[in-house]
Amino acid sequence: MKAVIMAGGKGVRLQPISIGCPKPLIPVFDRPVMEYILELLKRHGIREVRATLQHMPDKIIRYFEENPPEGIELSFSIEEEPLGTAGSVARCRDFLGDEDFLVISGDAICDMDLTGCMQRHFEKRADATIVLYRHPKPLEYGLVMTKEDGRIERFIEKPSWSQVFCDTVNTGIYILNPKVLDRVKPGVPVDFAKDIFRDMLREGAPLYGTAAKGYWCDIGEPDTYADCHFDILSGKTEIHIGSPHIDGYCVMSEIPASVKLHPPVYIGKNVRIGMNAEIGPYAVIGQGSSIGAGALIESSVLNGAAVREGAEIRGAIICGGASVGRDAVVSEGCVVGEKASVEDSVALSPGVKVWPGLKVRRGSTAKFSIFSEHGGRGSLPFDDKSDIRGDIFELTPEICLRIGAALGNEGTVAVGYAGGPAAETLAQAISCGVRAAGSDCIRHDARFLAEASFAADMYGAAHSAFVEATGEEMCIRIVGKNRMLPSHETERKLNLAVKADIPPQSRERFGGERFAIGAPLAYEQALLRQAAGKSPVRVISDNVPARLLKPVLEKGRITDHDAAGYITLGVSPDGTELHVSDEEGHELDKAAVEALLAMIHFREGNRVIAVTFDAPQAIDMIALREGGRVARRGRDQDYERYAHESIFMRDAILAALKLCRYIGREGTSVAELHRQIPGFHVHVYNAPYAGDRGALMRALSMISAERELGDGLRFPHKNGWIHVSPSSARPFIRIVAESTSAEAAEELCADISDLIKQGENITD
Fold it and tell me: Which residues of 15-107 form beta strands (DSSP E)?
């Protein structure tokens, strides 16, 4: 039997431990968690394994190339976009063949009897068998109820105690017949638990569950990550941690006789411990750690960290390269991220998390988590699209209140949301902030970003704030007038706002709130006014914007299904990106679509197009050829002037209508237009970097005298060009490279990534 390890998750709930480190490489007793999974598979006779990767794949591949698993043939499958658990496994169809196979998560610790599970799978002639675990705290997991014969009769997602009808939870370990993968639609995100298994249950397919003997622990949160270590220390599992574990002691370094050890304890290799330190009970001191004299460590995990003299660590996790100063106190539930510094005499209150690379100043008391150098109210996590994106710990109602107040200082704000109660709550907080600043808030019913941006323009709002919630990730998308990305001045004001208090207002100065219904209908009517011409078109996306695009095309009499060749269109869920395949079946990438739209824009008589700073250089070549000009955000002062004329670059449905209208009028094809675009390829890579980003960018800027400064750094290369920009709140540098071939673009990214690894020494 073969196995697929699902190892693509970002580990949002595990932050800040997982920042800069993919979950499969998170250390457990000085070894990556995925190594334990590989050993488990090997013990049960599975020697051919493929891992599905999406988040930080390079790190995972590099580690296992340098540390190949003995007796295991390991290969990898990389997802460019998240496809769900079933979608990612379906990509491995060529590897799996026609035999039943096993699927297992790459971020759990277990020693379950997989052989017994496989036997029961074949005895029942099951299409799918879910491996279950009897968990004492089942509330945080999906429960699975089975009949006496093991056949599954009900799924219960994240139950309350009133819904706990059993204690068997879904471990994410599945034994599957290959025909189960026939249920997966190519290119569409599909989950086993949420989609495939529920369909099978409804249809009465042979779907079974089996409660396996042994131990299982999902390390998806800091608490469970620590519990996993303590369970292994206390002998709840037979997992081997690299050294004889005698009477609660596993010590692989020499320690002074004056050190007090209270079992169970683990002390890895090359650990230094000072005189009279007190270690344990339930202390895990990873390799390379150092403990100062008189320090106390109990119920804690240290992964290669430094703890100075007299410090107290109780119930905390200290990540690799982090330091805790003299006489500091780190309380229960705290997490100190990689290379973070808790200085002398600091007190971290229970549950405080310090993000990687940050510093807690000497003598201070931290009562709230620290996400930036400014403390808990730190810089907002803007991404490369100027969206404020983070998890539920970062984007709280309090922060949203302050964002609303900052936007409200500039006038009326339109607010909408998508994604359930979490998004609605944050939208309400933004609205309260707007009104607290003395401005009016318009709450509309737009369903996605492009529609929300239109609504803000329609209502004459100074800004639009649209909140989206997907799982644990929250996103606040700010749009200004003419549907522009927020200016750098607006971003600066928002960052200042989260550190400031909201000034009190008199009763008369609070703004009002009104609910405006009808944005979707108004948006559709505005689109219909743009719909003209007749082109062979098919829409393949199945999301809200795509379901709007289809009737707009039909009402505009654009769609012609009888044509020999047709254009295939898709729309991103937020309605901002258009996906195009030409009449010959060739899929255009995002950069090619942008270049195609720019060329049409110029040929329709427009002289200027407004684009983002990292838009493809090919647009400049097209502009030169067509007698036009490019205004880039962050470089050209007249970007805002022409932004309204270029809304189709930020509205996929408008872009689709513009494309179809032009083709129908000119009697040409997408394939022909695509051949007229200068040949180029774009590659994007987020390079991890936890050092001084300002110093790094200064050093990078000295590489070329021909550089451009705007939204990041852009400079030419003999094989193309490279755009580099630091994330405002994440420990990585975004690299966009453009060249004449995909291989060359990828090489440019790799070259810059190698320079970034050298840090500030790159100018030498």
Answer: 27-28, 31-32, 48-53, 73-78, 101-105
